[in-house]
Design a protein that fits this description.
Shape: elongated
Structural class: alpha+beta
Number of helices: 6
Number of strands: 4
Radius of gyration: 22 Å
Strand content: 5-15%
């Protein structure tokens, strides 16, 4: 039973650490973040099982982590208000072609990284961006100004 409590405590600790480290998807992890996550896995195993290498302890520890993951997912589905607490909220990082320094600083998103993400979406200039949102999963959604070329002026012809 001690393994269940250790797994519960460490699961909550890891959830807090991953929220604090930032919003990066797996392909965008820095070398340090990747090393942190790999090292955390080994340290968690040692802390949960106290060097107990039995199959039963391993299965029990993994089962607790899996169960807690399912519980968090169910909680988000059943109580939508908890979604922002569990996953985080989307954050506006560009509005009307201007990078919002407070938002990017809080999210540890550098302007060069933001510009690189925009270029990867085919956006040449940040001035073309009406709105950019850093999503809870670490991806950035860009919305450009939509002015159709050759669209007629508003007004009525007589």
């Amino acid at each position: 039973m001690e393994i269940v409590f250790r797994a519960l405590v460490l699961f909550l600790f890891l959830w807090a650490v991953t929220r604090a480290v930032g919003r990066s998807s797996l392909g965008e992890l820095s070398t340090f973040e990747l090393l942190l996550y790999v090292t955390m896995g080994d340290l968690v195993q040692q802390a949960v099982t106290q060097q107990d290498y039995s199959v039963t302890s391993g299965v029990l520890a993994v089962s607790v982590f899996a169960l807690l993951t399912v519980v968090l997912n169910w909680t988000q589905w059943r109580f939508p208000g908890t979604r922002s607490l569990i996953n985080g909220k989307p954050v506006v990082v560009v509005r009307d072609g201007e990078v919002l320094p407070t938002s990017t600083r809080q999210q540890r998103l550098s302007t060069p990284d933001l510009l690189a993400l925009a270029r990867q979406q085919g956006i040449r200039s940040i001035a073309d961006v009406e709105l950019a949102v850093l999503e809870a999963d670490g991806k950035v959604s860009f919305f450009t100004r939509s002015e159709p070329e050759g669209a007629p002026e508003t007004g009525h012809a007589t």
